[in-house]
Amino acid sequence: MYSNSPAAKYGLKVNDVILEINGKRVTSAGAFIGELAAKKIGETVNLKVASNGKEKNISMKLEAFNYSQQQTRTQ
């Protein structure tokens, strides 16, 4: 995860597991990506995330992010 990414901005961390997106259970990375691909930049998605043994809900507005220009990842 990149420290200045939209995901980090909304509180997602390395090793967090996304359980649901907009109330739909995430069963694979492909299913999650498919749900995201159906959305547009500026739309809001609601995630249920497992983080450090606890579940939390995150509402995040989708933003553009250029991963190819990033060099530092959070470990």
From TrEMBL:
<feature type="domain" description="PDZ">
    <location>
        <begin position="1"/>
        <end position="53"/>
    </location>
</feature>
<dbReference type="InterPro" id="IPR036034">
    <property type="entry name" value="PDZ_sf"/>
</dbReference>
<dbReference type="Pfam" id="PF13180">
    <property type="entry name" value="PDZ_2"/>
</dbReference>
<dbReference type="InterPro" id="IPR001478">
    <property type="entry name" value="PDZ"/>
</dbReference>
<protein>
    <submittedName>
        <fullName>PDZ domain-containing protein</fullName>
    </submittedName>
</protein>
